[in-house]
């Protein structure tokens, strides 16, 4: 089975651009929660919207109150709405006005009581400090909406009848000096009723009914409103939601119960901590931590040794949130001796705990030999606990070779932001001064040093899809030579973790997985292991996979099963294949994909490999680690060349073994899902 892996040909450039975007995203200021543009205005418009002429289109705009009669404590919200009536597009700018207040200050909200007395602004001296500004383009028939909390603008905290006035100017004064678009507005009467048991119950019914119809952040917000509005009275409603319905709804209700920490809500959450569903147990743990009640902390300490990931992580985080003194040593012990996933959770648990003891504990563990964990500790101290960050904290991470990892890339950002004058010397000290063509050097210089204040002139050429030219190499080496005197002490390169290599797979008949390696024409390499031959260059690869006769039947069987998700529904129905059978097969394919990930499992990698297994049922997929490992080998300094070569070779061997073992396991397990008559059709 010869295969040209066309999907790999452009991958280096795409990965390069993707990582650059990821590195820059940390600087994007997304501001307040964004409004939405939809196809048409929904809900009762009543007298609240008016028509306005603009230079390009007619619009219908104004402020629609969510309710004009509310019970004290209910949300006081209105929806700013703009609909384009045509005939052409309507464009305006939104935002740029929330820093310093957390609200959009271009909205002008006035409120007066029944006697005409103006209600005060909750912010004594609001300052306009700008913010992220976004263009909005409405095509004819489209509308724009933004929900406004009136209490962000006026103090409305008593029963009564109020006159509300809302305005918005489309032309942002810092963008457009001469307004050409209208100022739109609406006025309405808002009645706030006294709280009575009957009224509170009616509102709680409305809110919990809404909870069944929304998802995601809207669900969490709805149930948070339920808890804050109803307070103790809301517990029976939230308890009912926590015990029945979809998992997402139950988990959100448990989270909302933490806002009403009393004996009744505690009982509901304690029961849920023993639920059979891991998501529910994790949600219950989080709620108990937020409640900070003694019985809840006792329950968390009791279940921690019995739980596995991811519930165990949720319990640790909850113990940190509880800030209970007796939880502190448990968190610390987990940081010192737990599994790596629990150690990471313990770091964040200490962040939740806060205080000088947490800071001291993390600082004492800054020298972890596990670089990924070291990065997490530094991130916690510098960015979450706001501690001064010496540059040497991150030098071992930055001196590492895996420059495509999140930890390595983000170390550049942390140094830029928190290491002060020590940032540039520290980053320069980690360059490979004797490597003329290096993506690692490019990242340090372009995304680390260059954006720093007082950065020296830098023009380092690099393209991951080429080997460069002699002129480019000489230019880069001259630049590195000028930068070397500005570098700090050259750090001792950390010892690369010893291979935790997977043992050789034993099979019957035997398969020789011992890898061979040779360099081939045009700067490529060839690696053989088992049935896999990998021929690799910077921008392309070939992966012939040749299965001998003894193993061909099992591979052909696996290919038939792998292709089932691609069959037409009518074919599966003709063979009487049920939804449950396809779900079982899907779980086996997912397990196969996880096996191919080896030690680097992520949702993205599993998804990519799953798709390759299904879409090309009779081919061996590829590992997206190979391009990075191959580039590391080509660009490694002489002292690291053999190590980089060994990592690439071993990655290919392990993948080859996992693909063979996974194929055999998948074929055998998939057979058990289907009936004899179905197997006859599938394997025909």
What features would you describe in this structure?
- The chain is an alpha+beta fold.
- Among the domains are: 36-194, Sandwich (Immunoglobulin-like); 368-497, no CATH class; 504-682, no CATH class.
- 45% of the residues lie in helices and 14% in strands.
- The protein contains 26 helices and 15 strands.
- Helix 9 (294-303) packs antiparallel against helix 10 (311-322), helix 10 (311-322) packs parallel to helix 12 (340-353) and helix 24 (626-635) packs antiparallel against helix 25.
- The longest helix is centred in the last third of the chain and has 31 residues, at 641-671.
- 36% of the residues are buried.
- Mean pLDDT is 89; it is low at 1-44.
Features:
alpha+beta; 15 strands; globular; disordered N terminus
List the helices and strands and how they pair.
Elements: H1 6-9, H2 11-25, E1 36-38, E2 49-53, E3 57-65, E4 69-71, E5 77-87, E6 90-95, E7 107-112, E8 133-138, E9 143-149, E10 160-169, E11 183-193, H3 197-211, H4 216-230, H5 235-243, H6 247-257, H7 263-272, H8 278-291, H9 294-303, H10 311-322, H11 328-337, H12 340-353, H13 355-364, H14 371-384, H15 395-398, H16 406-418, H17 423-429, H18 439-449, H19 470-483, E12 516-520, E13 524-529, E14 532-536, E15 541-542, H20 552-562, H21 569-574, H22 579-597, H23 603-615, H24 626-635, H25 641-671, H26 676-682
Parallel strand pairs: 4-11
Antiparallel strand pairs: 1-9, 2-3, 3-5, 5-9, 6-8, 7-10, 10-11, 12-13, 13-14, 14-15
Helix pairs in contact: 3-4, 4-6, 5-6, 5-7, 6-8, 7-8, 8-10, 9-10, 10-12, 11-12, 12-13, 12-14, 14-16, 16-17, 16-18, 17-18, 20-25, 22-23, 22-25, 24-25
